[in-house]
User: Fold these one by one.
Assistant:
Number 1:
Amino acid sequence: MNILVGQSGGPTAVINSSLAGVIAGGIESDKINKIYGAVGGIAGVLEDDIIEITDFSVERLALLKQTPSSFLGSCRKKLGSDEETYEKIFGIFEKYDIGAFFYIGGNDSMDTVDKLSRYGNKTGSAVRICGVPKTIDNDLVITDHTPGFGSAAKFVANCVRQLALDTAVYKMKSVIVLEIMGRNAGWLTAAAALGNDADVLGTDIICLPERVFDAEKFLEKVAKNADKGVAPIIAISEGIKGADGKYIGESLSLKQANDGFAHAALGGVGRIVENLISDKLGIKTRTIELSTLQRCFSQGASKCDVEEAYAAGYESVRFALSGETGFMPCFKRLSDAPYKMEIVPHPVCEIANYEKAVPDNMITADGMGITKDFIKYARPLIDGEPERIYENGILKFTTR
Amino acid sequence: MNILVGQSGGPTAVINSSLAGVIAGGIESDKINKIYGAVGGIAGVLEDDIIEITDFSVERLALLKQTPSSFLGSCRKKLGSDEETYEKIFGIFEKYDIGAFFYIGGNDSMDTVDKLSRYGNKTGSAVRICGVPKTIDNDLVITDHTPGFGSAAKFVANCVRQLALDTAVYKMKSVIVLEIMGRNAGWLTAAAALGNDADVLGTDIICLPERVFDAEKFLEKVAKNADKGVAPIIAISEGIKGADGKYIGESLSLKQANDGFAHAALGGVGRIVENLISDKLGIKTRTIELSTLQRCFSQGASKCDVEEAYAAGYESVRFALSGETGFMPCFKRLSDAPYKMEIVPHPVCEIANYEKAVPDNMITADGMGITKDFIKYARPLIDGEPERIYENGILKFTTR
């Protein structure tokens, strides 16, 4: 049989490491003949935009493992309920003699996997449908964590540490508002706390979407830290909300409070919070949006993440060959220290369309900080430096 | 005798590597007894905020070499012409039995070195006054380049490369406006071109302060590239100016042209250019400001830069001991391939208060691109990965 693999949703630093794992698993098995890739995810399948990727040398697989973004391209397509679409997709599977389809992605992609799997079951298709987890948001349920999170978290943590040193050089006090991705779950914003060490408290105000943003209490804590001259980095999730349940980034009341600063409306939540601090406290404030860098900075990827992303792809092929379908490989933590994981398949129907928020025990009582439970959980995920291949001073990549 | 060292101006990824070089040079010489550091630059000298830093272990020096930002703190103080200030400074030198003063910094700091040196000459002081170059702006004259530039350039280049891959995943065309530091010289913005390789043209619109920004021609080139689906990254120096000589970031005419986008005024030049593109061409555009990350990202520092910064500090001590004063160690390029440099002292009076712009042969005829001459010049400076010491997934640093 042949296999088909696609990538979907926002890119990460290690989504191609999972692709490398699927390709390596495919090459190793004598049951698998050709390996195909769908260009642009499930939309590419529907357009019959399929390329063969069987012939990957060991050297090229090593480059693929360190190439950020989606080698095969991506899409944001969500499947509807019309039979026609599914018929077309399974028609493509038949055309290429596909025995197993692997879809590397996050929440929306697992919805696609679930729907394809249901359709396959209903129609008695033999094609195994497999999800491979990836998302910097770390918001998939059942699995301990998701590939992509560790590397993004490591980038955030190192930025916090380095920016904290940079901010401390002048005697005048100033703060940085660091705007971090994660619309509905605060995992990546929480990772800012990993940038603290015994020497320097880089940040201890960390605002997640899991807690209501209270401007008054927030300003109190900012003023207190500024007085003490500690923790110049304020980590803000792009998804923080006010008591009215609305995103602060779209909050009219806060914008109006910032008279004359209507521009903040379009500058994102970071600028709104920046204006709050500088207007109300008169502290010099600068906003830094980590933007897409936090999801594509493979130069700072964690070895743990790169290897686990690869393993998720590789094991998926093994699971599919052993007859599993409609599953996603999940990480099951066996111990924190030494850090030990095992990968087990789990029905994707229990994963798709659920979201895992940061739990209460990882958030401090004041709702603006992170506890040691989070540090214990997340630290192993950002650990280790993979061997990196450079050329002319920039990381070497491979493209289609 | 004892020596005193200070740091000044904006931090870089390797300014502490130069400090490590001064300390190592001081420790090695049997003519030098104690090594002192001024906390907060020349302002710290004036406040008698002096600490002893003689006892650095080999291990701590290794950490110092990879610690970004200014270990000793910084200031932005420019010396005036009042005798009293100079008397006070030389009084502090006397108090601590200082035989040589080392000031690590950029253009403004070299002005300080020059002024102190003139005062010393006038008064017959035996204290040797030494400048040690550092600036991500690369705008000091005489020297081939400045420590700090290579690492910042490497960060910019790797960001361009990674962001170009990230932007390419969706079939819809979009561009990123990358706002890069450098108010008066475009060296660091030019470094975006180092992010291109044979596979992927990440950027070919690079706008420097050295050329007038012509919005019409700019939009033409953006539209042409977007049609071809190439070069999604547009590198913009924060210091680009219009034909009226005013910074685009403050240009009223462009702001007015963006009706209803008065917010752009405060979002920096990147947002203004973003609005230009999205308004006039209807192309999806995102601005990324690299902000202070580009000067403090030691996690991505170039080995060449780290070693040269160290050598600049170390050689300064040697030069001072051999009797030189009022100098700055300059890099003299012996060959491009293999890359070879030597370090020679040069009178600081011929360096302070001059600025080196990107020369004509490095800018394309259309004024919006970079030639191979720049690539040849800059590529060796971003080369090599230093050994890095990590702890818990984040780079390990040392602080005062």
Note: Residues 149-167 of chain B form the longest helix (19 residues).
Number 2:
Amino acid sequence: MQETARAFVPGHITGFFTVERDEDPTKTGSTGAGISLTNGVSVEVSYAEGPKITLNGEDVSMEAVERVLGTLAVSAAVEAETSLPVGAGFGVSGAVALGTALAANELFGRSLSENELVTIAHGAEVQAGTGLGDVVSQARGGMPIRLEAGSPHSGVMDGIPARGRIEYVTFGELSTSEIIGGNTERLEQPGEEALSEVVRSPTPDQFMYASRYFAREAGLLTEDVMRTIQDVSEAGGEAAMAMLGQTVFALGTGLSDAGYDPAVCAIDPAGARLESE
Amino acid sequence: MQETARAFVPGHITGFFTVERDEDPTKTGSTGAGISLTNGVSVEVSYAEGPKITLNGEDVSMEAVERVLGTLAVSAAVEAETSLPVGAGFGVSGAVALGTALAANELFGRSLSENELVTIAHGAEVQAGTGLGDVVSQARGGMPIRLEAGSPHSGVMDGIPARGRIEYVTFGELSTSEIIGGNTERLEQPGEEALSEVVRSPTPDQFMYASRYFAREAGLLTEDVMRTIQDVSEAGGEAAMAMLGQTVFALGTGLSDAGYDPAVCAIDPAGARLESE
């Protein structure tokens, strides 16, 4: 008998977004665009009196993951491993929730489709207040554009065709739940404007430009982030701020060229997937 | 200046389908389900007085590819390389069309989105009469279910969560255009029945069962194919027929276990993608 199942879920950086609320958590979400990263989260699910969740070996409490296990009606241990910083805009909570859904479905033979599993993880993440657009983007891979918010049944997605290296540095956390749980009106106009720029010209450079515009207009830039983006720009590169974290990401060698010592990965083309035994 | 751009597109085996026609070729297509394969087609596009298309080094004429180049208004050479058999149900024509769309968009800076490029390649394939569902499936990757036919703007897709090894053997060609261009009514009832079985229980085993049911009920089995599927079944494995080719594919080591000498690959989780320079 199979004793564990594993899934890999890419990290995801959002460049800009708008918040779209609905009574139904699976229809709640965000429009916007981002980048799926080859640095992600490996999730292993095994039989256990549960829920018991560890992140990089330490016991953690993750409401979205507990909700996924509850929806699938399984008792399990979830072990997540990642090199991504937590709370810094890489969608780690969404990744653990989605990886848990994929792996638990496999291990417990729940026979659900990919759209159903994404919907469960997205709804759990929304209800936990820890994210709005990461799960659907992580499921898709690439550079996803969220044209209409929500799970696959209501959401509409497209993508920017792109490959290549991504660099990032992190200066600390920002509370996602504080920002998306509070008054999000000031994000609306810049978020819509940024999205329409990217829809008009879906290229990586335009995405970076729209993301910088959004962070500036929405008043989310911190001093460290602002200085770093400027340094990259002065070195001839393209950088922007990850929503929501004190994180700067750059295309290609943008941060290295500006003298930083960034983490290095690439655009992940595949999206969330089961891993072979 | 960039002188070439490259894309990789997975092969795609359809297990069962129904034909859905519309006056608009981008809304024409097929419902059904299939498997994207790590064995696929590498496509390189370069500047040239064109169109000039080669497949594994030989000059070929491919209407779908010429239509893609025409829609993008580019003059280019397309070099495609693949280990997949041509005309045997692996979606090679769709793969070259989609790879050409992705790579030409990159090389010529056309700034189109992924959905737009998939729509162009899908429409070209439909107009050429060489395929109905391969392009959208190859764009998605994994084990795609086509719930509603057509390009991303009208089609609806889901997926069977699965990873692992796929084996195949080929006994020869079947003419896609003859079968999908002719009377497709006899495919309708078995195609719809197979789809509803897989939607009810989206697992790899159920997909193989539904595919065998479809091939049998639609009267498409040839003697070689029938015997091979039976051999795999007697050895305890799961095999079915690729639509449309005299090809048998199996999950895991199904064909090897039955004493065949199959080609071996795996489910491709990523779908069509640009390759880095």
Note: Chain A touches chain B through 34 residues (CB under 8 Å).
